[in-house]
Amino acid sequence: MLDIAIIGAGPAGYSAAINARKRDKSALVIGQSGGWLARAERIDNYPGLPGVSGAQLLETMRAQAEAMGAQTRPGVVHQVMDMGGTFALSLGGDFVEARRIILCTGAKQPRLLPGEERLLGRGVSYCGTCDAMLYRGKDVAVIAQGPEAVSEANFLASVCGSVTFFGAPDAALDARIVVSDKKPEEIVGDARVTALRASGEDMPFDGVFIFREAMALSALLPGLAMDGAFIRVDRSMHTSVPGVFAAGDCTGLPLQVAKAVGEGCIAALSAAQELR
Length: 276
Ligand SMILES: Cc1cc2nc3c(=O)[nH]c(=O)nc-3n(C[C@H](O)[C@H](O)[C@H](O)COP(=O)(O)OP(=O)(O)OC[C@H]3O[C@@H](n4cnc5c(N)ncnc54)[C@H](O)[C@@H]3O)c2cc1C
Description:
Blueprint: E1 2-7, H1 11-22, E2 27-30, H2 54-67, E3 71-73, E4 79-82, E5 87-91, E6 94-103, E7 124-125, H3 128-131, E8 139-145, H4 149-157, E9 162-166, E10 178-180, E11 184-188, E12 195-198, E13 201-204, E14 207-212, H5 217-220, E15 226-227, E16 230-231, E17 244-246, H6 257-275
Parallel strand pairs: 1-2, 1-6, 2-3, 6-17, 7-14, 8-9, 8-14, 9-10
Antiparallel strand pairs: 4-5, 5-6, 11-12, 12-13, 15-16
The structure holds flavin-adenine dinucleotide.
């Protein structure tokens, strides 16, 4: 069991990991490398490192966190489950257990499709590895908006009757997969998914798998109190859920590296304090 699991591999996440390690707590950062900061060509307002590129700064933070003993792992956390004092995080077909959670998920919230939230678990899935067997021999759609889409679609092709892939594949797809250039607009169904509306056409499917870089917070941790688009926190970076902290762009403006690393530090120290 980990002391602290950190969701999001940006500056807030690495700062949280570095400071958790300073308090001798085990820490795992989960997320794809190359988040938002990696797109910044030049940072002039981060103290001590004038003119550094975003990618360089992020890589230095990752290396520092790892050198201090933090673990890192690529992937998307699909759900955080409160086990009554500890937490289980689902990612892919795997689970990670931790005593405290720090959400460092950034400001970019995925836009959900109409019908997606309502039909989650009733034909809508975020995990091929977990749910493929429910669709053995059936027809499924894959909506590809993240790095796991191709590998998950290839796995689904080995189990499902048919797989239709919506999006641009970034690697080789199994020959059994059909690629559609239609634009997904809505997930259709009453009790269960019956179709995907794409470019105005209702295409019948038994299931719709959606793979993104990030999860909507309402699906990641249902019940988390928000202030508009941002997670509500107090000055110690506690969220409304006991044992869960948040830091960085996900807690509000200004969307800046210095604020993200400052909050990551506070969140880790607050979490470590609770674990003493
Ligand atoms: C082009 C550009 C230029 C910028 N220039 C500057 C600048 O000059 N100075 C400055 O201070 N700031 C600048 N910024 C802003 C800065 O990049 C952000 O403020 C900073 O990256 C916020 O850090 P963060 O860790 O909170 O979030 P992010 O860096 O956004 O990292 C969050 C990460 O969490 C991941 N994630 C989300 N949900 C999940 C999940 N469920 N499972 C796993 N991972 C998940 C996301 O994919 C993302 O990689 C710039 C941003 C951009 C895009």
